[in-house]
Structure formats: C-alpha cells, structure tokens
Amino acid sequence: MREELLVYEINDFSLNNDELMLNETVFHNANGYIGIRANLEEGYPNGYDTIRGSYVNGFYNISEMKQAERLYGMAEEKQTMVNVADTQSILLQLGEETFSMFQGTILESKRLLDMERGFTSRVVKWRSPKGKEAEIIIKRMTSFYQLSLFTIEYSVKALNFNGDIRFISGHIGNVLNYSNPNDPRVAGESFVHILPEKMEIENQTSYITSRTSKSGLYVCTGVTNLLSKEGANAGTCTIKKEENSMEAVIDSSIQIGETVTLTKYTVFADTIRYDDCKAGAEGEMKKALSLSLNELYDRQKAFLNSYWKNSFVRIDGDDGLSLAVNYNLYQLMQSVGKDEHCNIAAKGLSGEGYEGHYFWDTEMYILPYFILTNPDIARSLLEYRYKILDSARENAKLLGHKKGALYPWRTIMGKECSGYFPSGSAQYHINGDIAYAITSYYLATKDIDFIAEKGGEIIFETARLWMDTGYFYKGRFRINEVTGPDEYTCMVNNNYYTNASAKYNLQWAVQFYYLLIKEKKLAPIVDKIGIREEEIKEFEKAADQMYLPYDEELKINPQDDSFLEKKVWDFDHTPKENYPLLLHYHPMYLYRHQVCKQADTVLAHFIFEDFQPMDTIRNSYEYYEKITTHDSSLSACIFSIMASKLGYVDKAYDYFGDSAMLDLYNTHQNSKDGIHTANMGGNYMAIVYGFGGLRLKEKGLYFAPKLPKEWKGYEFKIIYEGSHIEVKVTKENVIFTLLKGEAKNIYVNDKPYELKDSIVLIMTEV
Questions:
Q1: Phi then psi dihedrals of residue 145, to 5 deg
Q2: Between vectors from CA 675 to CA 639 and to CA 352, what angle results, nearest 5°?
Q3: Does 598 count as an annotated binding residue?
C-alpha cells in the first residue's frame, strides 16, 4: 500500500463560492456516527452561500410534507436529518486584526485529506493588512476509536511579529438546515428543526442540550478548549453565555518563531443511543480527555491500518484512478452507520442532499462492498432493516396489503418519506433488494445464525408481500402497477427488474425455510410469524411461474409490458444543457418515452444473470445503452460491470472512469450537497464484480478476470467464509492467494480450483 495513494491534496485552493462549497463536501470529516462539513472555521463574508452543518446518523426531526390533494395513505410528513450544532467556529485574532482568507494576503494555502491517518488539514500562510505574517495549520478528525468525538487542532506560528493572540471558539446551538427551492434533491424550504433548551458550563466545558421541534429527540454537544505552547502558562480561557450559544475566549501571547496551539474537543450524544444525553456527553468528554491528542491520532491510524488491509484497491498504471477509488472507499467507511440505529444515507454524513434518507442504495450498491471486506458492518446494516421491520409491516397495511412487509422507499426511522409515490413508494423492488442483500451476505459468510435470528423473518415477510401484490394469470405470476429502478418510467405492469427480484426473493424464502429446518433453527420464526409449509409451496409456485417479459422480435427483455410501445426519446435534438432531464421536462412527458434515467433491466442482468441466456443479456445491454442518459449516479458503474461481463472492456473502462471521478471532479455538478455514496460502492463493484468478474453463488466463489489495456494490472482483497483472499491481475497472469483462513474452492471462468495457498493462471488462458 503506497502512502501517496491515500492522500488527496489541493494547493492554492480557490475562494470561489462554488469551489468552497464543493470542498465542504470533499474534505468533510465523518465516522459513521457524526459528520461535519469542511467549512472554514472563521466563516465567509456576507453574500457567500454555504452549507454549514454537523450531523448525527439516524438523528432526525419530523417536518410537514404538503400534499396538493390529500389522498388516502400518502405521506404528509417526513423525517429529516438535522444540523445539530455548530462547533467548528474559531476566530483567530492577532492583536487587533482578525484572520480571514478574504482579507490581507494569502501567501500560501493548501487543503489535504490523509486517508491513512484519518484527518483533514488546512495550511495557510497569511499576511495581515498591517503586515503581520503567520502560518496557520488546522487539523480536523472525527474519531473512529471514539465515535462521539470531533477534534480541531488549530496551530499558529508567528513568522515576523511578537504580540497578543486570541482565539474565540464558538459553540452555537441556534442552527438551521440548508434549503434550496430550486433543487428537488435538497429541502425546499428552511425550517427550525432543533431548539436549544439548556446551556451549562462545567469544568471549563460548555454543554448545549437541544431538542427537535417535533420528533421528541434530544442531543447534547459538549466542547472543551485546551491551549498549549512552549514555555510557561499558555494563556487564559473564559466561557461566555450568549443567546442559544456560548463562546470560549482564549488569550495568550506569541513570539517570533513560536507556535501556539488550540485543541478543541467536541462530543455528541443523543437520546436514540443514550437514556440521558447530557450524562452521555459528560462521559464521552471524560473519555476523550483521558488520552492525549497524539494518542487519539495513533488510535485513528491503527483503525485505518486494519481497514485498509482488507479494503485497499490498487490500479497499477493509473495512480489518479487508484487515488479516486480509495477516496471513494474511505468515504464509505466515513459514512456507514456502526450500529442498528442507523444506516448509510445517499449523501453519507457529508451534506443534506436527500435530507439524510436511506434508500435501496445501501443494499444494492454499498452492502456488496462491506459484505466482501467488513462483514460485521454488513451485518449491522442488515440489522437496521430488521429493527424497522414492524414499520415495514405497517407500511404494507397502509398500502392495502393484508400480509407481509413493504419497506419504505426512503426513510430514516422506518416510515415512508417519499412524497411522490409514482417514483417513490411504487418502487416495490426495495423488498427484493433487501432480500437480495441478505442472501448475498449469507452466501459470503454462511452466517446461518443471522438468518435464524433476523434475516429469515425479513425474507419470509417480503416474500409474503409479493404474494399479496402479484397474481396468477394464464399460468404466469404477474406484478402490476409498480416502478422499477428507472425513474423516467413509472407505474408499469411487470417491470422486468421487479419481477426478477421478486422471483429471487421467493426462491430464497423456500431455500432458507428448508435450510433452517435442517439446522433445527426454524421453530422460533414459526412461533413468531406463523410461516407454514403450505405457504412455502405457494412461494415456490410463484417463483417458478414468475413472468419475465421477453420480446421475440428484438430478443431482449423489455423493461416492462408497455415500454417498447413508446416513442424513443429524441436524443439528437436534446440540448446538452437539458440534462439531467428530470430538471427540464415534466415527469409525464418522460414517462411517455423510451428513455432511461439509469440501469434497470441491465441491472437485473447483472445480479440475476442466471435468469437469462447470454445472447438475451447482450441484446438487452446493447438496446438499453442507446436510450440511457445516466442522469443517476447509480448508472455508469452498472454499465461498466455489464460491459466487462460481455467482453466490451474498452466500454467498461470508460464507464468506470466516469463513476470513479464523480465527486472529486464534481462531474454531476451537485457534489456540494454531499457525496454520492451509492456510486462509490458501485465503483468498487465495477472493479471487483466487473473487471474481476466476481460472483457469489450457491456453488461457491466465481471469477472471470479481465484487464483494461490502459492498466498494467490491479489487485484487491476479499473475505469469503472467513478466509482472506487476495486477487492480483496483470497482463501476464492472475494470482489468487489465500492470506488467512481455510482453503476454499473457487471457480475461474467456470473451471474449479482449490485455493490452498496460491494459484497462478496465465492471463491468456483465463
């Protein structure tokens, strides 16, 4: 692992407003529990737009979701991730002058993300309007060792002056969420989500306890400021209470060549995880201060050393792509929830896009990564789905189903947050996605205890939902009035992807039923939900007779029953500035055309490849490629994977690059709202499932490696049934190495091998 492939740096960074907002996302700090955007500590001049936010995963408020027509069952309120406090604020005064990037002269500036050590930094050499020169180095860390902890280490070195120095460290409870009425991907209006209730000062630590305005949740933030420098007394600290905020004023002096450092500790505690959030914050602050900052840095590095042992991906011959891929993988670890109370939002903890909601993104794009590299985290993500299973049962009843569970399309705590049901609640495939993820987890881990305790119940209840949604007609099981992954085509009959995912869900409900009988672990599930063999037989019949649309003339799988009857979108006369189409055309206009926002049937052919022969998969890929806009960030990675499978390696490479660079290069022009976590997981899959050809199947672990001509090679590591396996692909050969654990049977291009230590295959023969 080369250190430079884990460091991202910008020199002489821009003060353009758009660039600053983008960098708030790119350099944010998070650890799965808390996330803090990379705002400038000193703030911005009036007129600058900014998303200044600190977030707690799974912590939410309820806000109104107005419906023009109040039809039965439509959601009229939603959960929203809350900006909980501003503890980033630090003003630096050199005598009577206040440091600002927008005043004086910037002699040098740099922003850096160190993914090996787990911190971001900002380095500025500044000359004040009166000529004082200082070097300012600011390091920020959200701790993986102590998830509640965020630190800022703010160092100032005097380059040409002696004098007084002052830090004003803010702890602000009166904060708002970001809003933009012109962008459907963020909240459309500002709303007071959180209300500071109590401000306390104890042992030079400020605590603000706040409550949400409607959800009844509380959060406490605690802040301690410590000053250090060479020599005698570092300085004095006075904490002042103001309206809904507090500030610590820290005074000291500085000599030429001397460095003065303020270390700011912030802890977060909420009532989802703590009975008393104030007491929780006190305990967390005590824990944080029990170690030196250097010890906390050491533990951060140790955590990441362990993480990268399983997760690092190397692309030999393109360091830029290697950096981009590993940046994406680092962001996934920053974003993913570490307990059953939360999941991973579409924007992680980097911003407020999609209001912090959890989607199918987790199961279909992110879980495959964690299943293969960190199965304990994968299990935790699935446990979240079990935690909200009762809400999914209630959601099914609300939509008219007599049995089963239907997971909400977008949610935080389990209730549906989708206000536009044609492209939201109608996406019933969310059930199949979750069932697919549980099955994939089992295939990779053989964790039958999880299936017995939690996963099996989800599988059976989602299978029941399909039986209540679909029906048998002329010897086929059909599912009407649903929406597939492609949100440019809504409310259709027999969406191929949905039907295929339902078939897979039902098949595995049958298999898990008999497997649990064999393992003598079924009885508790029977006692709880009353699943019986007669019901299982119906599942089996529906799976066997599932209707999967096929067009004899084109020899493809139509996206749905009516898709091929529509007019093809006029791509030749659509201006480039009209993309993404959803921002420029009415939904009804889109629905009447053959145009795909993202992979739909093509995605089905990736994850359910055994349902169709190769010729049909190839024909479908070539057909849909021509009419897919990739307006969704979830699309390019899937087309890359399928291009690899079909032998179109050049195409796969092009799609892969589009996916890898999305956030670092802001290719969709919306990364200011937050990272695209699903694309980041999909980017990993494009290497491992695409170029590596990996598949998890009942018979075992399959590979079909390919190498883009632009690369000299690539390598990755996975965990399969507890064994650690390294895969290296070069122009000359493919090497599979068992790093740890028991020998495993693997298949390479369908040929079986026993992996005991190392297998070397000639690339031209693979």
A1: -75, -45
A2: 130
A3: yes
Quick one: which of 379, 432, 390 has its CA closest to 415? 390
Instruction: Report residue 182's pLDDT band, with 50, 70 and 90 as the boundaries.
Output: low
Pick the catalytic residue: 41, 487, 625, 715? 487
The pLDDT, as a whole number, for residue 186 is 56
361 is an annotated ligand-binding site residue: yes
With CA atoms as reference, report the closest residue to 140 among 5, 21, 272, 293: 293
CA distances from 233 to 153, 202, 236, 251, 651 (A): 19, 22, 8, 11, 64
The yes or no reply on domain 3-62+77-282+293-307 and CATH 2.70.98.40 is yes
Rounded to whole angstroms, how far apart are CA atoms 312 and 327? 10
Encode pLDDT of 403-460 as tens digits. Answer: 999 999 999 999 999 999 999 999 999 999 999 999 999 999 999 999 999 999 999 9
Map 180-198 to HEC letters: CCCCCCCCCCCCCCEEEEE
| Cα 460 from Cα 512, distance rounded (Å) | 9
Residue 79 marked ligand-binding: no
Residue 730 phi, psi dihedral angles, 5° rounding: -130, 180
Burial class (CB in 10 A: 0-12, 13-18, 19+), 441: buried
Q: Is 553 a catalytic residue?
A: no
How do the domains of the chain map onto residue ranges?
Answer: 3-62+77-282+293-307
Please state whether beta strands 744-748 and 700-703 pair in parallel, antiparallel, or not at all (unpaired).
parallel
| Prediction pTM value | 0.96
Cβ–Cβ under 8 Å, residues 361 and 315? no
Taken as a whole, the chain contains a residue count of 766
Residue appearing with tokens 């990379």: 38
Going by C-alpha positions, the residue among 268, 35, 316, 99 that lies closest to residue 171 is 268
